[in-house]
Amino acid sequence: MRHLRGANLNGSMRTSQAVSELIEAGLRKAQEAGSLPAAGDVDVVIEKPKQPEHGDFSSSVALSLARAMRMAPMAIAQEIVAHLPESDVIDGAEVAPPGFVNVRLSNSWLVSQIDEVIVAGSDYGNTSDGEGQRVQVEFVSVNPTGPLHVGHARGAVLGSGIATVLEAAGFDVQREYYVNDAGAQMRVFYDTLYARFMQAAGKDVPLPDPAYPGEYLADLAKEIYAGNQDLASKDEDTVKSQISPIALERTLAEIRGVLSNLGIEYDNWFYESSLIKEGTLDNTLEMLSQNGYLVERDGARWFTSTAFGEDEDDVVIRSGEQIPTYFGTDLAYHYDKFIKRSFDRVINVWGADHHGHVSRLEAAVKALGGDPENLTIILNQIVSFKNEGETVRFSKRKGNIVTVEELVEEVGADACRFIFLSRTANAQMEFDLALATTESSENPVYYVQYAHARLAAIMRNAAEQGIDSSGADLSLIGHDAELELVKRLLDLPDIVHRAARNLEPHHLAYYAMDLAKSLQRFYEQCRVISDDPAELSTTQARLRLVEAAKTVFAKTLGLMGMSAPDRM
Questions:
Q1: Cα(377)–Cα(401) distance, rounded to whole angstroms?
Q2: For residues 278 and 8, what is the distance between their CA atoms, to the nearest angstrom?
Q3: 545: closest CA among 523, 564, 565?
Q4: Which of 448, 320, 431 is nearest to 384 (CA)?
Q5: CB contact at 8 A, 184 and 315
Q6: Contacts from 288-295 at CB under 8 Å and sequence distance 24+?
């Protein structure tokens, strides 16, 4: 265990981790002294008590050891506390019924961390949990057949948030968009595009059955026709081969632009068609066949999902034209992820309508020689929208918002990101359009960003008055509101750890609100810049705390993909 005297938490160690290791050391010393019996490996879990009078951290390790040690939990806890090593991190520990070890952080150590936060800067809050493990996060992956609908926005922000927090936790992350450019829907899209193109040329070409609905394709076809009128005299195959790539690229360019405006960028755009062109699909099917998980029946090829407990097998190659199904290319895609590109972990963020696809894909990963435990599929639930208390029904005909682009224009990217990140993926949510644009403390987005702007204003004011906080005497920090704010600042590494471990970036949104509330209490109770020259030392110390708080607010907003405004 690392030495904890003078420990700083600039990203290498979390506060809860430091406390956990102290309690673990106390347990080990008690066992070495013979005060407690051996009990094998012990996981010292640390929690924050709901009541402040119970300390800053609490552990129930004594309760969990009672049976193995055949001792009363209170007696175990007392021995652990008695053998805690010396450390300037904590100010003391006490035992509480029925056997909790409650720990209070040292005020002197707390204030010493203010400078550590400032020195760490934008790296503050980062952890080394991931140790460079390669993780792929695939999200959005909407068929490139038109603009992104508002229903896609939540998954986009959620996937982006997960990727960012994993990076902060030390993982090597790749963000990927899977372009479904080879499936049945794209064939219908291209067939409809051809008909619309020829109609734009004045030809009497009927729409196919089925046809792709909506006006988007008709408008796109007119745009393509305007620059490619000579194609109208060519045969159907030639026309399709020429206009289809143009339509695909223009649609993808629109999707890229909209996602970029939402603060989302990708490391890789992976094309479904490449699985077929490069032979990955054939290699995948060959591997499954050799392992006995592929059978031919009724002219089609089937993956034997029933061998893994599924209710029925799944078609991967259709009879007739021998075209792969969506599930067939998905098998090859995950073969590529796990086998060819060797990601340690794969995370897919899908819409709730894909729930029936989860277990069979996990079965497929196992059949391909991968570990299903390394595949995580997150299903994000639907979002409903309201405006001034009324439910919003999206309709192009009525002129309401229908695309992600329109949503961002209406409320802004920062509001979209914060609100979509404020709930767990498996919870349905309601997006209040009016609240998202309200400039008051009732709007959580405004409240959090205003906190950063307020801190920036204080620092500007200090600079204008020529007040320098470097070398401030931080021992002057001792007011309850000051210490509470410091404690909240030191929570960020633990928040990153929890959010990355559970793939739950909503913890950042809650943390940002708690941090803003702590700042509000500090601001109301502790005047930062005093007009009294005798209070200069206190002013300098509080300015140092303000700088640390600004650092943490900026980092937290950045992790959520939001801007950190200096003025509002």
A1: 29
A2: 51
A3: 523
A4: 431
A5: no
A6: 288/331, 288/367, 288/368, 291/367, 293/367
| Dihedral, 345, 261, 427, 59 alpha carbons, nearest 10 | 60
Q: Which two tokens stand for residue 388?
A: 């001034």
Q: Are 399 and 352 in contact (CB under 8 A)?
A: no
Is pLDDT at 245 greater than 90 in this prediction? Answer: yes
- On whether the pTM is more than 0.70, the answer is yes
Element (DSSP H or E) covering residue 485: helix 480-489
What is the pLDDT at residue 397?
Answer: 54
Q: What does the block give as tokens for 42? A: 């012990």
Examine the pLDDT at 396 and tell me if it is beyond 60: no
Structure tokens at 526: 């502790």
| CA trace torsion 337, 340, 343, 344 (10° rounding) | 120
Ranges of H-type helices in 230-357: 236-261, 272-277, 280-290, 326-335
Is residue 494 within 8 Å of residue 46, measured between CB atoms? no
3-state secondary structure of 235: coil
Alpha carbon distance 399, 403 (integer Å): 11
Strand partners, 310: none
Helical pair 480-489 and 107-120, crossing angle rounded to 10 deg? 50
Q: Which helix (H) or strand (E) holds 96?
A: strand 90-96
Question: pLDDT digits over 293-330, tens only?
Answer: 999 999 999 999 999 999 999 999 999 888 999 999 99
Cα distance between residue 460 and residue 513, in whole Å: 24
Q: Are 47 and 23 contacting, i.e. CB atoms less than 8 angstroms apart?
A: no
The angle that helices 444-464 and 506-525 make with each other, rounded to 10 degrees, is 50
Percentage of residues in the chain with pLDDT exceeding 70? Answer: 96
With a CB cutoff of 8 Å and minimum separation 6, the contacts of 83 are: 26, 27, 29, 30, 33, 35
For 256, how many CA atoms within 13 A lie in the half-sphere containing its CB? Answer: 13
Q: Give the three-state DSSP class for 135.
A: strand
Do the beta carbons of residue 147 and residue 254 sit within 8 Å?
yes
- Structure-token match 């990601």, residue found: 343
Radius of gyration of the chain (CA): 29
Q: How many residues does the chain have?
A: 568
Q: Helix, strand, coil proportions of the chain in percent (round to 5)?
A: 55, 15, 35
Walk me through the domains of the chain, giving residue ranges and CATH numbers: 15-105 (3.30.1360.70), 184-246 (no CATH), 440-559 (1.10.730.10)
Residue 346 is given by DSSP the state E
Query: ∠ CA(187), CA(193), CA(195), 5° rounding?
Result: 110
What gap in Å lies between CA 507 and CA 423, rounded to an integer?
Answer: 9
Strand order in the sheet with 100-105: 46-47, 57-59, 100-105, 90-96
Per residue in 19-75, pLDDT (tens digit) is 999 999 999 999 999 999 998 888 899 999 988 889 999 999 999 999 999 999 999
- Listed in sequence order, the residues at least 6 apart from 547 whose beta carbon sits closer than 8 Å to its beta carbon are 118, 455, 459, 469
